[in-house]
Write the structure tokens for this entry.
Amino acid sequence: MFNLEEELKKLPSKPGVYIMHNKNDEIIYVGKAINLKNRVRQYFQKRERSSKISKMVTQIAYFEYIITDSEIEALILECNLIKEHSPKYNTMLKDGKSYPYIKITVNEEYPRVLFSRNMKRDKAKYFGPYTSLGAVKDTLELIRKIYRIRTCNRNLPRDIGKERPCLYAHLEQCMAPCMGNCNKEEYNKAIKEIIGFLNGDYADVKKYLEDEMYKASDEMDFERAAEYRDLLKSVLHISEKQKINDNNEQDDKDVIACAIDGTEVIVQVFFIRNGKMIGREHYYMKNADRLTSGEVIYNFIKQFYSGTPYLPKTLLVGSEIEERELLEEWLSIKKGSKVSIKVPIKGKKEQMLELAKKNALLVMNQDREKIQREERRTKGAVEELEKLIQIDKHIERIESYDISNISGFDSVGSMVVFENGKPKKSDYRKFRIKTVQGPNDYASMEEVLTRRFTHGLKEENEKRMNIRDKEYFSFSKYPELILMDGGRGQVNIAMDVLNKLGFDIAVCGMVKDDNHRTRGLYCNNVEVDIDTHSEVFRLITRIQDETHRFAIEYHRSLRSKGQVHSILDDIPGVGPKRRKILMKHFESIEAIKSASVEEIEQLDGMNNKIAQEIIDFFNRKK
């Protein structure tokens, strides 16, 4: 048992990270402290605090801590733990966005221009990050059409002339260096022009496209002229995105401001690279009520820059933030060079911050109705459900189950999970029925539920014994409510399984009418009617439809796997690739049967042994 008073006395007066757990062993909060003893004890003292912290304290079953040598180590560890566990009560970014880069492999003799999600130390040249995936793809398409750079991964010049050119070469969208169609100097000149283009030098490209467009038009080749016209539009579109220019400073910087209205918090970021704005993005923060703008930006910087692969030289923020020097030290360590956090109070930089703040307010006003509507259809619907079935605890996780089969053939079970009114697809599970023969939905459901909760108990035991990593434990997270796709019979099956295994979980059945539409809920031996125009009715319908869809799709996939079968699959050593080679060359099974060993072994991917195996197989069939 965890003795709170005794454990508080044992806390050391050293820097470190503290981790709060609830009764289900879930991490609900992670924090850092210069002095663990002083910081952790504050949570359990009688003092005025925010409603969020007060609620969190009531759920703390025990805490643990990790001592570090310095405050900067504690900050790094805190960021990593928050990112790994996403604790319920930490102020968190709602968006887990990662931004794309354009990568030029200048370390290769014939460089390629590629899309990349990560910025690595591999001697390549990176441009970005870009805030629009579509813009990156358009840019890459544009570069390929204008400069005709290779996209293949062939090792050049080693593989020159060894294989036939790709489709892009035939479409005149690649110089085909793999065939020796261009020399190295000509190719690298194109790479140099691409680097200039990505650095914002659009003049040469515009002139080239305009000249080619007019030339094609004069030659009455209007189709080619239209292609150049469209390419020119793409270049103009890209160049016009550089709306904010800071010609005095060419450093990379991010401009960060926030808008706060009650419990709604939005952070707006302008990304400025080489003095030009390449994009902007907004982020929603949760669990940020009662925080000042400085506290919001402090939490945002820790969350956002612990995950982004690129760090600018300067962060411009709209408010003074706590522990600024500590954050600068941490960011500088990540970047490998000095990173500064500045609060401008006048001039162009202050104007950029004001513009970022106005954008955040604009987004908040535009999205407020959408956010409220989403809250009503998710969390609001769950609250209605709690009142409807008169459950005495908050419903965070709902699990729903269904069985699918055709006359008992390939019976399968599905488990669908909704958290806070939204589907959590990473926790969906499929069950292939093992112990039941024939169309017996009740017995099949009993097997599914028994396997699911027995697995949960097994994970709990392994967790206590530290047998596996924590990422493994998905079944040991239990729901507050189980919804069965059926009425009294299915509910009784579920209750029997739960009682045998010692679980206290509410169970309801989703009852349908004669037209197979949701009619109500069967709970506590009575059927509860639901207003068909309410959000809770729509939520239950969504859960029921999703459960049914997931089971049907799994059953359909099993049927299709059983139906798609070739006699060639029965030959030892013949897999999908060799089967495709055989069918492409011979076009029919009869032609393969009539072939000789020598004819088969000369095909790509074949050898004498496999060819003999194929001939022997068909001889045995005869």
Remarks:
- Confidence is low (pLDDT under 50) at residues 241-248.
